[in-house]
Amino acid sequence: MEPAEGSHLDALAYLECALGLLGSVLLKLVRSAYGRYASPRPACRVPARAAWALQELPSLAVPLWVCARTAAERLRHAPNRVLLAMFLVHYAQRSLIFPLLIRGGKPMPLYTCTLAFTFCVYNGYLQSRYLSQYAVYADDWVTDPRFLVGFCLWLIGMLINIHSDHILRNLRKPGETGYKIPRGGLFEYVTAANYFGEVVEWCGYALASWSVQGGAFAAFTFCILVSRAQQHHHP
Questions:
Q1: pTM for the full model?
Q2: Which one-letter DSSP state was computed for residue 6?
Q3: To the nearest 10°, the Cα dihedral for 51, 104, 223, 126?
């Protein structure tokens, strides 16, 4: 471990927070260009299933590469392994399972897919490098209230996200088109229950990790997805 790299990882985390704030501002000025907000104008687009798989895959592949190419000293400790597993479980579902469940989604602009891919490379490296080389936890950290509450929030948030995606996939019967208001689950209480679940999930991860890196990811997710949810609520 190099002390300088630890400082660099902290700097990358602070930069991620800044990028989240910038992204939030830009989303208020420029509407997102995929899904129901996709522009009808011709553009280079990627089929929905391929786009989601490609853009999310780095968050699964990069951590595996980081851990394979180094000694991953900190992964000898249970808290580090559990936290990294939390990250990988989400992105295994998001990159390998979720795309296969998509029903005729709208193609995604190439630049949107590229931005998401770039972020997943960045954040995948940040989280995995920190947890595998620099995060220091006591062996009993998994019994600490912060970890236990954070883990429960992570699990609840992931289940909300998966269930909400299921509701969205089944909004329209075969052959139906156009926008429909989702009903059921947390959609009865919030406009974008899928986004709400993901925000809860990564806030739980941040609490369980009790780190600048985890907090930066939660902050970025909050900034981007809350802005997206506001678009849904005030189209």
A1: 0.91
A2: H
A3: -30
